[in-house]
């Protein structure tokens, strides 16, 4: 079995990579929302974060790799959607740097149209992405939900909520809607928050466009 990153945000970053096209299929705010939700979900699953009156609150003390627990503890009670949106872009860079330091990816600078600087991400070992995709696929189609690995269940929930086409194209999200709902229920409140954030953003964009 191929070794995969331990953290859920790192796994979701790699799952957003399209092996066939050899590029990230999600970026910017969309990817940031998924990664923030992944960080919140990891804390929730490990008991370091709890839900009180529909909002996140510190739970059992423990590691706080992205500083989320400290910020939540220092803040007045806020919604899950707030914490999904908050600092969504910086976490993309933080997780990418984490993966680059760990030797999972290679990042090279390039220029779009010869003018605009951009970073090109390459996964060093495609088997890692295949292993992660296999776990998500098995969670979606395999054993009873109660027996699914918690991170694989969360990967499906987050990919569906964040519309990561590299994991769950639109037809698959519709076909497996009930199973996705069951996996989401196992994974905590952060994944539904991603869906709400994205829908709210679209509503604002549609209103501005009209």
Automatic annotation (TrEMBL):
List the molecular function annotations (GO) for this entry: phosphatidylinositol-4-phosphate binding
The compartments listed are:
Golgi apparatus membrane
Gene Ontology CC annotations of this record: cytoplasm; endomembrane system
Q: What is its main location?
A: Golgi
Q: Does the keyword Lipid biosynthesis apply?
A: no
Gene3D superfamilies, sorted? yeast vps74-n-term truncation variant domain like (1.10.3630.10)
Membrane topology of the entry: Peripheral membrane protein
Q: Which domain of life is it from?
A: Bacteria
A Pfam match: GPP34
Keyword annotations of the record: Golgi apparatus, Lipid-binding, Membrane
What InterPro entries has UniProt attached to this entry?
GPP34-like, GPP34-like_sf
Q: What is this protein called?
A: GPP34 family phosphoprotein
